[in-house]
Design goal:
- This protein is α+β, with helices and mostly antiparallel strands.
- The chain has a single domain, classed as Gcn5-related N-acetyltransferase (GNAT) (Aminopeptidase), CATH 3.40.630.
- Helix content is 32%, strand content 27%.
- A seven-stranded mixed sheet has the order 1-2-3-4-5-7-6, with helices on both faces.
- Helix 2 crosses helix 4.
- It is globular and about 40 Å long.
- It starts with a helix and ends in a 7-residue tail after the last strand.
Length: 180
């Protein structure tokens, strides 16, 4: 099985979401990827959002998908600094953000998430952002730790109306070495 997963990761291409891609398929991926968090009673929007909400969120930025053999197996939504808002840190004019980030559960911890994050960081640099930020549930300590290993740092807390937890806002300073 490990050999099969490794070869599958090798076949993954990351590209912008196209009009031909299935929003219901993207929503289903989000639900699968966030199921572990839902099982912890963390009500991320992606645990239960409708296809309509997925479409509205995709329209707020640049959505990228990871595709393998015709199947979407990962996604990330990049928002440039002009579209990033909602809390004091997000309101800075040089802070871009990511959201709606998901990897197929069987492919998690195989490097695909890092590839998606790197792409978003590169896009942020290309748009002139000084920082790229994200938010996640404070109780999701495994995610907070993972983002910190990628160079993100704690900025502040936020309480969104659509969640049942306090969020942590994490951010990473962008530099040429970020692309390594």
């Amino acid at each position: 099985m490990v050999g099969m997963v490794t070869s599958l990761i090798d076949t993954v291409a990351i590209r912008p979401l196209s009009p031909a891609d299935s929003i219901p398929g993207l929503t289903a991926l989000l639900h699968r990827a966030y199921a572990r968090l839902a099982d912890q009673d963390l009500r991320y929007l992606a645990t239960h959002q409708s296809d309509e909400i997925t479409g509205k969120r995709v329209a707020q930025g640049e959505c990228f998908v990871a595709e393998s053999k015709g199947t979407i197996v990962g996604t990330i939504l990049f928002k440039n600094a002009e579209r990033t808002n909602g809390c004091p840190w997000y309101d800075h004019d040089d802070v871009a953000s990511i959201s709606q980030f998901a990897v197929e559960p069987a492919l998690q911890a195989k490097g695909l998430g890092r590839r998606l994050m790197s792409l978003a960081e590169e896009r942020a640099m290309a748009t002139g952002a000084r920082e790229i930020a994200l938010d996640t549930a404070e109780p999701a300590t495994h995610l907070v730790s993972w983002y910190m290993r990628l160079g993100y740092r704690f900025i502040e807390h936020a309480q969104w109306t659509h969640t049942n937890y306090r969020s942590v806002i994490l951010s990473k300073t962008l530099s040429r070495s970020t692309q390594a």
